[in-house]
Every structure is written in structure tokens, then in C-alpha cells.
Amino acid sequence: MKLKCISLGIGLSAAVLVVCYLMLSTPRALANEQVEDFSAIYKINQDASVLVSEVWRYNFGLLKRNEIEFILPVRYLSGVNSYQVSFQNWSVIDEDGQNLDLAFNKQGNELQVIIKSKGQPFSGYKIFNVSYRVFNALYVRGTRAEFNWNVTGNRWNIGIINTTAKVELIEGFTADQITLGCMYGPEGALMKCFPKTTITTGATQLDFVSPKTLYPKEGLILSVEFPLGIIKPPSPFVNLKLWAKENWPLAMPFLSFLSSLLWWLRSGYDPRRSRGYGVRFSPPDDLSPLEMGYMYKNTLDPHDLAAEIFYLAVKGYLGIELTGSESGADYRLSRHRAVGPMSSEHQRLILDSLFDNRDSVLLSTYLGEMPLRISELEDSLKSQLRDKAVIKSGALAKKFVVTFIWLCFGILAWFLARNANFSSISALSFLSSGVLVAIVALLRPGGGRHWIEVMEHVKGFERYLSVHEDGSRLIHNAPVRNPELFESYLPYALVLGVERLWSAQFEELVMSTPTWFLNPYWKGQFNPHILSDDLSTLAMVVAGQIPIISV
Q1: Where is the signal peptide (predicted)?
Q2: Pairing relation of β-strands 330-335 and 318-323?
Q3: Residue 110: helix, strand or coil by DSSP?
């Protein structure tokens, strides 16, 4: 009884297995769809193109189809370069000599070719004669060429019983001049096969055969390396055109570098680091010493604030008098209200901060209250210089530009990385381009073309203030030197740190004591150097009371 139960169980299990097998395999068995014979001939032409002729003996079995499709790879990689083959002169003819319609769909690195039936669906036993011409399929290295091709591709969902391929060269070679390779099987698990070489007069034929049936997703791959002989590969210009078409993202870093360099040369370089500017005989138009110093140094320098006080004294808005002893010098400032209101906001703020409705003040005792209005003075300077378009872009604007550049290149790099039409090196090219442009934007010191022009003017004016007339021919057209010129430009010379050089140009000039600066210790021995030294001392007093404010 026990033995009968066991036998019955085994029998039932076998029956279940058979039923399951039949259920799973019946559609395919009944359909019996397969390619019974796949033969291809590749004729390599003198112009380096390849003429492909394929014959498919296709068995649809009991199935009926309105269309069938096959996949061809169109792009391959060699190092960091990407190459794409192109197809022309497509033709598909059935066993009755009827031309069939074709549709093409490019999907990433592959080309989907769809063969459509005319009238009645495909069924039973059909023959397809497929022909096309391939360009850019040869990889040329020096005097040798290499032809690599996946005969069937690895995307067939049905089996291929017999697979053969022939490669025809239009010139006869000896066997030792040709290197062959043959692989078959699924992608990533290929096995070797053994091609055959047949050499006749003026021609070479290479035969490749799959040693077994190719199951779904399996393919036959051939490789032929041979001397170029009479084959003429495309010209370097054509190759460059093809390379640029497929690898244009690799040019992005070079284009970014070139555009960044041009941008830098046009509106990004710093004129303060160059010495190649012509002499200018006046300061930039409509810029006071403090405005020029703020733009030039990018900081509110107390020495420049002192120079602005001298400038206001030269213009008649206040008077300066040295008081105390020579070892403990102090300065009294007197406001001249009869001159009239100030035209510049920052100059009005300076006078209001100094005097605070007083007519006279000792500088050493009152400068302690100046920092209370330094921020207001700085805001006024920025506003005025922006209106005159001579101030650099703010840090926030620069960060916005850099962020925008990074965002644009980052989005492009992400798109290329996810797009199968481009290699990963393309995404890296865009990413590196974004890094390059962002670095240039961060390091770019200029504030625009007008900023550079004004800065060049300042450098030319500094040259004029620094060079003695007898020692250079560069300033032979300089304006006539007189006390008014010396006093007008002395505050600018103090901003640029060349006040002693400027004073030296007036050593031989007889000058009277200026009305806006009184020094009881001169005792009739006035000369430009004395005034320059006194103003430098006054500048140090101001600098000792007011800290440097960076922007």
C-alpha cells in the first residue's frame, strides 16, 4: 500500500510537470518562430564604406505579424572618443521581389529598423533580402584598418539556427597580413569561433560561421584587421567633421577657456597690476580724491579721508591751522560757510560730521565722534560711484552670477550623463567648463569696461604725478606748472602715495604760502616739500583716530 502511494505521488508530480511544461512551451512550440538561416556579406569598398547584403530565411510558424524589427548598434567608443556609423541606401525585398516599407527609430546608441508588411501580414516561411551601405565603420590606425561588426546583434528575441558571414576585400592580401577575430554568444559571455580565409587573385574572402544555434539575445561578432592597400579613408577634414559631430561636448572646456579669456581681457583684468599706460595730466572727471581712493583701493582709507579734507580746504570750504608744539601737533579746522552748500553728498557728510553746526573744531578732540557716521559716508560713496559706473559689482551679485553659471552647466552635465547619445566624458566636459567659468567669475577683479577705463586713467595720472619733467620725455606736453596746479593735485597725490614725488616737481618754482593752510613754524621758509610733509602728518593724525573700513 505504501509503495502504491509513493508511485501514485511520483506519477502525479510528473504529470504536473508535463502539464506546466506544455503550458509554458506550447505557444512557442506551436508558433515555431525562428530565423532558420542568417547570412551576411560585407564588401569593403575603396572609399572605406561597407556594402552590406543580408538574407534572412524567416519562419513565422503559425504566427502572423504586420511588422518585424531588428536592432543595429550605431555608436561605439574608442578611448575617450565616441564614433557613430551612418547608414544609407536601405532596401528590403521579399522572396517575391516586392520592396517592403521601412521605419527607423534611433534609441540611444542603437538604431531600431522596422520592416512593415504590405497588405497581408507576415506568416509562414519568408525570405528577406536586406541591403544597406555603412559609413565610418572602419577604424583606421596608420596604414592599417580594422572592421568590427556584430552580424546579428544581441537583441533578437528568437533563435537563429544557422549564422554565416563573409567579408570581401577588394584587394588580395597574404594570410599573414590579415588578423581575424570571431566571437559568439550572449553579451558579456562571448566564446571564440574560428573564421576561414580564402585568398584569390585580386580579392580576399573571409568566412565566419557560428558553430551553434544562436539563442535569443545571442550574436555573432567578427573582427578583421588588414592593410589599407587601395582603400582611401576619409580626409582629415571629413574625419574632423565626423568627430566634431559626435564629440562636440569635448570642445566645451576649450570654448569656455577662450570665452573666459576674452571676457577677462575685455572687462576682467586689473589695470592696477600693469605699467603700460600713457600719462594722463588730470584726475578722472568728476571724481574727488576720496572717491578715487575708494574705487582704487576698494576700502575707505583714513588717509584718503584726510586727502578729501585737504581737497575741501583747497576748494575754500574750510581752513586748516597747525596748533600746539611741533612735537605734539594738533590741527584746528574752520568752516567757511560763505562758500555755499556742497554739491556732493559725501562731502556734505564730512563737513557735517566734522563741525556739527560749529564753526571751528580741534581735530584731535573731535575725530572720536567721526566713526559714528562712517557707515553713512561709506553708503553715500557707494551710491555715487554706482551712479558714475566706476564701482565694482557687489559680492552678492558675483555670487548670483557664479551660482547661475554652475546651475546652467550642472543641468547640462546631468542631462548628458543620463542621455545615452553621449558618453560620460561629455558630462565631465560640461562640468569642467562650468568650474572654469565660475573660477574666472570669482577671480575677475574688474567692474566693467568703464571701471577699467577709469582705472587706466588713474594709473596714467599716477604716472604724471610721479615722474619729474627733467627725467622723462613722456610728459613733454604736460600743463604749465603753477601753485594752483600743485595745490589742486596734491590731495590726489596723497591718495596715491606719491605726494613727495609730486612736490619734487615744484622745487624750483617760487610759491607763496597757501591761504587755506596756516603753519606758524614756517616763518617765511615755505616750499612744496614743507606743505607735503605737513599734510602727511595731518593724514597720520586722521588715520590714528579712524580705523580702516574694508568693503
Answers
A1: none
A2: antiparallel
A3: strand
- Model pTM? 0.50
Q: Any idea of the CA torsion for 321, 322, 323, 325, to the nearest 10 degrees?
A: -170
The DSSP 8-state label assigned to residue 324 in this structure reads S
Residue 316 has which C-alpha cell?
Answer: 575754500
Pairing of strands 122-135, 330-335: unpaired
Supply φ then ψ for residue 74, to 5 degrees: -115, -10
| N residues, the chain | 551
pLDDT digits (tens, 9 = 90+) for 419-449: 555 556 667 777 777 777 777 766 665 566 6
What local confidence, expressed as pLDDT, does residue 187 receive?
A: 83
Question: β-pairing, 67-73 with 110-116?
Answer: antiparallel
Choices 3.30.590.20, 2.40.50.100, 1.10.8.100, 2.60.40.1730: CATH for 30-234: 2.60.40.1730
Over the Cα atoms of the chain, what is R_g? 44
Q: Which residues pair with 199 in a beta bridge?
A: 204
Phi/psi of residue 279, nearest 5 degrees: -75, 135
Q: 348 vs 397, which has greater pLDDT?
A: 348
DSSP 8-state class, residue 99: B
Please provide residue 491's backbone torsions phi and psi, each rounded to the nearest 5 degrees.
Answer: -60, -35
Measured CA to CA, the distance from residue 457 to residue 451 in angstroms comes to: 10
495-521 pLDDT tens trace: 888 888 888 888 777 777 788 888 777
Q: How far is CA 205 from the centre of its chain?
A: 50
Nearest to 349 by CA among 326, 325, 324, 382: 382
Q: CA 148 to CA 341: how far, in whole Å?
A: 87
Residue 152 is classified by DSSP as S
**Mean pLDDT across the stretch 360-367?**
73
pLDDT at 130 over 90: yes
Mean pLDDT, residues 317-323 taken together: 85
List own/partner pairs for 334-338 with CB under 8 A and 24 or more apart.
334/359, 334/360, 335/359, 335/360
| Pairwise CA distance, residues 122 & 322, whole Å | 111
* Residue reference for cell 584718503: 304
Cβ distance 130 to 92 under 8 Å?
yes
**Domain edges within the chain:** 30-234, 249-267+395-444, 297-392+449-550
Q: Tell me the average pLDDT across 460-475.
A: 67
* 3-class state of residue 478 by DSSP: coil
- 23 burial type by CB count under 10 A (0-12 exposed, 13-18 middle, 19+ buried): exposed
Beta partners for residue 203, in sequence order? 200
> Which cell numbers hold the place of 324?
600746539
- What average pLDDT does the chain have? 77
